[in-house]
Design brief:
By secondary structure, the protein is of the alpha+beta class. The chain is built from 14 helices and 8 strands. The protein folds into 3 domains: 65 residues, Double Stranded RNA Binding Domain, CATH 3.30.160; 85 residues, DNA polymerase, domain 1; 172 residues, Intergrase catalytic core (hpI Integrase, Chain A, Orthogonal Bundle). Strands 1-2-3-4-5 form a 5-stranded antiparallel β-sheet, with helices on one face. Strands 6-7-8 form a 3-stranded antiparallel β-sheet. The longest helix is centred in the middle third of the chain and has 20 residues.
Length: 377
Amino acid sequence: MDSDQQNPPGPPKQAVFHKVAANLYRLASSAGYYALVKRGGKQFRRSLQTADRKLAERRLADLKAQVGSLTITEDAKLGFKDVALRWLESIKHTLRPATIVQREIRINNLTPHFRGVAIRNITPRQCEVWATARGPEVAAQTFAHELELLNAVLRYSQAHGLILTNPAASLKRPKIVQAKIVVPSREQFQNLVAAIRLSEGRKDSQTKSKTGADLVEFLAYSGARLGEARQARWRDVDFGKHAITIQGTKSETSRRVIPMTNALRAFLEKLCAGEQPKPDDQIIPILSAKKCLHNACRRLGYPHFTHHDFRHFFATTCIESGVDIPTISRWLGHSDGGALAMRVYGHLRQEHSFAMIKRVDFGTAPVRATGAQSALQ
């Protein structure tokens, strides 16, 4: 591109460009300015989005500074998966093992779409093609997680001088619609516990049924996650202070000391009296109640409730008892001050509010709607 008239650095081939300065070109048809900067054997072509010479020169200087910050190494030739695994390795110390596995799965899902392309050569168009193809294949939440990881890897590449800009930056995150939760009623909960405890099988089957029912009750009365219930030890129970320590497993902030509900205290006292446990013994010596819970739901004709549904049962029971959302959020081990709980349970609070207003009685006779009132309705 040394002559005054050159092939275009970006726009269609029939366009005519005039070189006006080093790395700076002007499109004859629109008078717009374009930049062409070379570094490490790669050309960077950009529209400077202006027809003003002074502004174009400033934007060219910014672009040259960006290009100058690139790391000219063989790393820029690495493929997406290689860079993604390097990124993951750099943050592993901050992640739980289960989270690391999730990130690895997302990397594997993304890799086929960018196979054979060096990280520095991934274009916005390739990212758009991935989004167009992948979006309809998976749930919105799955797509959002993969997009988040793609952006994280590309930002990592940008920070380490492997790419100039993030080619996926313009991709939009889909709106996630919160699925409506299905929570067992109090009657369903009691029937389920009774059905799980009722086992007519072998002795070992009866033992599993008992501990399965114990697990369901513990989840329902404490609001603990399944992983937290597995970690619970008798040393965590303080009958004197009417409290229990939940050893959080989801994050550092999820460890919490919560007051025991009366139901939880009565349940634990009964369990303790029958077992005579040691401080380091598990409160619930079973990993899962999935099978016995599934069988009980099937026999009773109920929806197939999961362990987590009893955490929801705890939260909704608290709401129906008048406990405010921020307090429930702390009991559940959320670290966002109630934002997540409001999204998940906010509609239940409103439903409960409308149910409660029906109980308010001022002792006055019902008023018939007048013609004007009827019109307003």
